[in-house]
Amino acid sequence: MEGQKRTPVIIDTDPGVDDAIAILLALASPEIEILAIIVCFGNTDVHSAWLSRPSYTYSAYALLNAVWNNSSNIYKLYQAVGRQIAAHPEDKEKFPNYTPDVPPILALGPDGPLEGSRHFARYFHGRWVTYLEGGLVYTDEFCRDGLGGITERHPELNVWSVDKADGFKANFVPTTKSGVEVALALLNTWPKRSITYVALGPLTNLASLNREHHQTVNDRIGRVIIMGGALDVPGNTSPVAEFNFLADPYAAKGLLCPVVQGQGLPLERVLLVTLDVTRSHKLPFTFYIQHVDPDFDSTTNPSVATEKSPVSHFTSSFLERTREVLLDLGQDTMELHDVVAMWCAIDNPPEAFAKEHNLPSLSPGWAAAKRKFDIERTGELTRGMMVVDRRDESVHGPGVIRSQWQPFLEETYQCHGSLESTVIPAQLEAEMESEGVPSGPDGCMGHQTDHGGSIGGLVDVACVIKTPGEDALVRLLVKRVWGVDTQ
């Protein structure tokens, strides 16, 4: 924004693997000022991600050895940066958001979705260990930290309660206020439309804020950058859904395509960063080994703190497990989903005069396209799916393989009417019969309907389709977070 050198941001996160790297990038980016970090459920539960130690279910014998005082991923992350600066004082300038003049607020967000069951991404970010003893089944939850079990595998990274009270006063201020209360106060305190809200996890906190204080959000929020959804590519948690949308589809739908028009976010200030664009931004582990940590390997050959910088030890400690999971899936590279969204926030501050129906104004190298979709909320197999209407034959190039047509349109920037999801579908009578059906404050009809939403209510949402490129992101990330110039 004109006259404002740094973009104030609220980071809404479920601190797992790529979230942690995204937050490290935020701490190292002078373009932004972190006002708050709101921790929600997602990659793990909020208590593992925030202040509380995990609960345990052990046999009596195992309990004797379970004197743990595990802490949050946020504390661990800040501790790693603090150790980095203590070991290398010259690195303090490289992390301008580590000890800011006004420390950000650390707040607890929702521990579950607006409606429906809770889903966690422990298959990727953590693990549960179940074993049989004395005829009983026990489940150890020590690996539910969202960072591949570093709480148990790397106890040297744990933050003890005695250190929490005063050890991080210069870094952030924990609060007992809810994430909604914190975000609302910041929106009301800072200049109108100056704040960027960066959503890296499920959208529950933002949806609750919008439900309870819709007019304030509509009037005062500057830009909303959401990592979530999959339009023309498969999902990651299910064949059709990206995790953040699957974790709380009611929140995603209520914000982006509410049943009652006008009850969602101000879409002219929204940028959606979907799997369609994030999947092409990867950090190869061979590159990480070459430039960051030559000793990086696996959980069977774990990172040793004395042999590398503290930040490198921290990231290698949780990436060990990540690499093993990905190798089982046949790839030796990590997709930087949340990192792309944070990069988008760093590069693209709010616009002073964003206009309805217009595409957001973006920095050079970035591009967005308006897309039409709805979001399935209750499907047995399709929960969280972005439903794009593909029935109109006129949206395809004649004789062109359908799966190849959409990328061609995006590459050639035919983004205003040529994308297949910009076509308004034929409206079915049943889809329009909402009279007499109770709805929530954001227009969500909840469990009163037999389906996830009306496809007749499709709206235009700006989706990022182009960035300055994977190489540009990896160079920026490696230089800022690990201090390695690969130019």
From TrEMBL:
Pfam families: IU_nuc_hydro (PF01156). One of its GO terms (molecular function) is purine nucleosidase activity. Residues 9-396 form the Inosine/uridine-preferring nucleoside hydrolase domain. InterPro entries: I/U_nuclsd_hydro_CS, Inosine/uridine_hydrolase_dom, IUNH, Ribo_hydro-like. GO terms for cellular component: cytosol. It comes from the Eukaryota. Keywords: Glycosidase, Hydrolase. The keyword Amino-acid biosynthesis does not apply. GO terms for biological process: purine nucleoside catabolic process. PANTHER family: HYDROLASE, PUTATIVE (AFU_ORTHOLOGUE AFUA_1G11790)-RELATED, INOSINE-URIDINE PREFERRING NUCLEOSIDE HYDROLASE. Belongs to the IUNH family. This is Inosine/uridine-preferring nucleoside hydrolase domain-containing protein.
